[in-house]
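Example A, followed by Example B.
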Amino acid sequence: MKKEILFIIENLRGGGAEKVLLDLLKRFDYTLYHVSLLVGYPEGVYKNDIPKEVELIFLYKENHTFCRKAFRYYKKYGGFSYMLKYQLQKRIKASYDVIISFLEGRALLLHSLIKDKGEMNITWVHSDLSTYHWTAATFPNLSAEKACYAAMDKIVFVSHQAMNNFADVFDVSVPVVCIYNIIDTEHIRALAAKEDISYPCFTVTTMGTLNRVKAFDKLVYVSKHFCDAGYSIHFQIIGEGENEKQLRKLCEDLGMQHQISFLGFMENPYPYVKSSDIYVSTSLSEGFSLVIGEAMGLGVPVVATHTAGAIELLDGGQCGVLTEHDVEAIYEGIKKLVDDKELRQRYAEKAVRRSEVFAVDKIMRQVYGLFD
């Protein structure tokens, strides 16, 4: 008999955790597991990419506004979560062998309301909550969030440092394990080969949701530094988000609109990443930066600010340049590679070797091991 697995995530937008979940579901052994996926509402670029074997369940089928109102009601009134419980009872089965909330925040909250329906309850943490406690906006207080984690049987972290830092925020006696995100390097390289991109000058690329935590505004100031120093460098940002308008205005205010391109969301960004001279991450916080790992697998040298994910991915700076978070430090880190072609090549070679630790088969064995 197949094991019944239920995954929970809020939406299927183009975020890193959503992509990781999609990669995981594509590689599940459906001869051994029947997998269901509970999503808050039918919205997101990944909705049509879910494998056909997965039973897709929407908490609110028609208008996701109701879903958001229910979450806001919980945040305001705490324990009065009957709006969400009512919908959950209508949508899901009586019991599952394993229930997995695949993201902190609202997915964890939903999970806590149906934990009695799981023989085993597992939650995934993708962020370093000690440096970026974004999930505080979901819960009425820290105690309510802590109670959700304490009710789990296992907590999975995507980096060891994020796992260690978690104890600084939540003191819970729940078994923990670190499982890296899947990075299918062979598939990424195949996608990268689908288009031949040629840049007219030295090109620096970054990718992610255009929000505060990615700190892309710092890259705009960095580009100004290079321009003032007489360098001919083009910067490009792949992704979309609520901060795009402000970032474009900042570019115009600094006169950098011709040195920085906004490429938007791309289904296949890898040809653009592969053809770049450097990949840069300016994030304030990362549990595990999927795009840094992907750039490494493509042999692109990386410059990244100190975050839990970047430190671990770059092996403490052995496989790429780590910098502090201020503009001057990021500028100097990038300049170090811009000025030294041999150093770029050495980091590129080390990055490719390092990316082998994210191999698909290895990660899937660890995931299946959770259910034993």
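Example B, a separate protein, is given below in the same form.
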Amino acid sequence: MADSHDTEPANDEMRERHSRLKRLAVRGSLFEMLAYVLGQVLRLGGNLILTRLLFPEAFGLMTTLTVFNTGLIMLSDVGIEQSVIQNERGDEPVFANTAWTLQIVRGLSLYGVALALTWPMAQLEGVPELLWLIPVGALSVPIAALSSTAEFALRRQVRVGRLVGLELASQAVALGVMLAWAWVHPSIWALIVGNIAREIFRTIASHLVLVPGYRNRLSWDAAARAEIIAFGRWILGSSAVFFLAGFADRLLLLPFLQAGGLGIYSIAALLTESAFTVIGKITHGVLFPIFSRIRLDGVDRLQEVYYQARLRLDLLALGGVGALFMVGPRLIDFLWDDRYHEAGWMLQILCVKAATRSVFDPADKCLVALGRVRTSFINNAARTVFLFAGVPIGWHFLGEEGVVWGVVASDLPCAFILWTALWREKVLRVDRELLAWVFFGAGLGVGFGVDALLALLLP
């Protein structure tokens, strides 16, 4: 009897902790969704204006430059942010400052790598303009590396309100600079300078306004450094192959589609990626910290929390993507001019990728929370192989359409690798996974009706 009474306070404490985490998850998810909606309004509105001021080639070149910078960052990701969020010492100043110092060293090193790769990159892509675009555009990388680790601290505590405000303010600054520059001098420099302005603003604001009294200082604690590097071993490999599987399509497609075609592809990707972008933000910024805590209470509890979260995410993402598949081409023709008409069929194919990514990204983060970082690496490595094999094969048989299908095919191995790993961890529920595709089918039905209505209303 004594043991029974002893466990009651512990159970009450666990229930209270779960209730608090649920409130944080709901509030954090709402903040992330609000930021996403407002961010998409800014992004889409700005894009509509910029596409009328600039040529498709400018967007194609900027897409290449953005992917190049993203590649530099992800191919050298040693899990600094994840370490601060996950580690028990994450709130200690010496640990956070060591992480900040590592971040700065990494950022400066990456800029040196960017300069070294400028000429080979221009030759590989056959685009001489990259000789001067890369050295300037890559400045955003070391600038971003100076950002305060206050961002990590807020993520760790699932306090995302200020992070949302910072993200929206940074986007607004970038858009303002882009539009002003493009109005006065329409060229790709409008996009590049706007991107740099965003990172400067974000970095300064992260130190001044995110957490009052929070200050970073250079530190090089050996124990903290060792813990960060040890945790980041598989993160490094997983991020590298995640970039190759998820972002390298822009670099891989340039020789097949050329700059103009890649610019059109980027418009289709802008719309389809919106679905799994918000899922990724919620999963990384809200659910991953919560999964990391809930796993300590057992697999049954983690499975319950995981599929509770998935129910809402699947309804939002899969239903939305299904509807977008039906109405997307008409929206493309209505919002953009005739130069971007081909983005319509690209969008429909990429909707399939958006649906699969919306399902697999939460699964991947759940496994990382369980310590299965190696599985994440294997999954992304398989996606990379399928991408680099699928694009040229698709080009050979179907031309441009086959290239886009090759991008979609890169997600095929995810079903086997991730679902098998979740099954082994006793988390997988087949009925709930099938429910996601029921939502997708329902979205197709809704989209069909909306498209028919738009056909009557739009010219």
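On Example B: The radius of gyration is 22 Å.
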